[in-house]
Amino acid sequence: MCPLIFLWRCRIIKELQINEEIREKEVRLIDVDGTQLGIVPIKKALEIANERRLDLVNVAPTANPPVCRILDYGKYKYELTKKEKEARKNQKIINVKEIRLTPNIEEHDLQVKANRAIEFLKDGDKVKVSVRFKGREMGHTEMGEEVLKDFLNLLDEYGKVEKEAKMEGRNLVVILVPKA
Predict the structure, then answer these.
(1) Among 47, 55, 121, 169, which is disulfide-ready with 158 (CB 3.0 to 4.6 Å)?
(2) Using an 8 Å Cβ cutoff, are 172 and 138 in contact?
(3) Are 61 and 13 in contact (CB under 8 A)?
(4) Are the C-beta atoms of residues 131 and 102 closer than 8 Å to each other?
(5) Domains located in the chain, CATH noted
(6) Closest CA to 26 of 63, 51, 1
């Protein structure tokens, strides 16, 4: 099957077929109040929908026979978008903030970075702490592990480790999440 035709068919199914767009011979018909009217020819289903001044909507096109419902399509789409908007509003977006350290960082600099990480954790964001090694520092990764351990001790009451310390290329990385 041609990819364009496939995409076209998927879009039609996603958008829901209504009234004359439905090309099936017989459909399982569901009334406005949810009662089943049985399997009827498409012409009769369209007549019933037109009598009630409502739309015939194919809600389950993959069923055998397809399931069609009599309803007000405009109202139905409005309610769907309203539910979708409500679901998006209730989502909490979690950002990942990164703090970069070096193996030979001074105590005060470490404290400043820890304070910044505490702010991120209080805001509900995840914090990715990475210790970057350059040149000969790669031979002394234990120094970076020690710095990371000190840093995690400073953040102990605000966050917990989600992903343990792991070398990723030239970086030693750990991910923290806020404590509940």
Answers:
(1) 121
(2) no
(3) yes
(4) yes
(5) 13-74 (3.10.20.80), 96-178 (3.30.110.10)
(6) 63
The one-character DSSP state at 66 is P
User: Which residue type sits at 92?
Assistant: K
Cis bond upstream, residue 3 (ω within 30): no
Q: What is the pLDDT of residues 24-76, one digit of tens each?
A: 888 888 888 888 888 888 888 888 888 888 888 888 878 888 888 888 888 88
* Residue 53 Rama label (left phi>0; alpha psi -120 to 50; beta): left
Place of tokens 């000190």: 150
Sign of CA dihedral 124, 159, 143, 104: positive
Q: Which two tokens stand for residue 165?
A: 């310390």
